[in-house]
Amino acid sequence: MPFTTIFFDLDDTLYPNSSGVWKLIKERMNLYMHQHLGIDWEEIPTLREQYFHEYGTTLRGLQAHYHMDLDEYLSFVHDIPLHKYLQPDKALQNMLQVLPLRKFIFTNADENHARRVLAALGLENCFQTIVDIKAVDPYCKPMQAAFKIALEIAGEPQPKNCILVDDLATNTRAGREFGFYTILFGQIGEHPDANVSLSHLTDLPDLLQDLKY
Q1: Can you spell out the DSSP letters for 140-158?
Q2: Burial class of 185 by CB neighbour count within 10 A (0 to 12, 13 to 18, 19+)
Q3: Spatial CB neighbours of 13, under 8 Å, sequence gap ≥ 6
Q4: Which of 123, 108, 92 is nearest to 203 (CA)?
Q5: Segment 32-64, tens digit of pLDDT
Q6: pLDDT, tens only, 136-189
Q7: Which domains does the chain have, with CATH numbers?
Q8: What predicted TM-score, i.e. pTM, was given to this entire model?
Q9: CA 16 to centroid of chain Cα atoms
Q10: Bridge partners of 129?
């Protein structure tokens, strides 16, 4: 397969879920909804689940139903001391540097958060650019329109030449429907919503070699 381009999700993909970072982000999402939008604590879990299924992210759901400041929200929910939870990942850095594909971040977070995560992991120079939530506005993963914009930003006209690595099955399913080869990260064995699953990112070159990329 003539793969040229690979998109990596950010949170819970470039670093493990066990780091606790995503847990803290979710807690700050809940806090924002309560403090800034006046939503009762009891309603927040149900609303977030509803927004995730209807809009792809909590953010896009809040934007549809509340008057809110995008930059304020993004700054608030990502206000986390990442250096306490993430450390440079030399093995991942080495793998990315030798991977002979054009590499992009494709995230439903914002670029500032993505750059902070990459800096904490020591991966600042491993990607060509970051496709963030603002770049695909008003869309987000798993919307097909978001994948189309990501493709345009990458300058790759053919979805079949692209790979997506993501920890959410909703995103890998949408990516595959769009034409990407999708890898569901953090899973073992076959999965109906991805072409293949992968439990360790450093195993990616071996997986791709089997595909003869």
Answers
A1: -TT-HHHHHHHHHHHT---
A2: buried
A3: 165, 166, 167, 185, 186, 201
A4: 92
A5: 999 999 999 999 999 999 999 999 999 999 999
A6: 999 999 999 999 999 999 999 999 999 999 999 999 999 999 999 999 999 888
A7: 5-16+88-211 (3.40.50.1000), 21-77 (1.10.150.450)
A8: 0.96
A9: 13
A10: 104
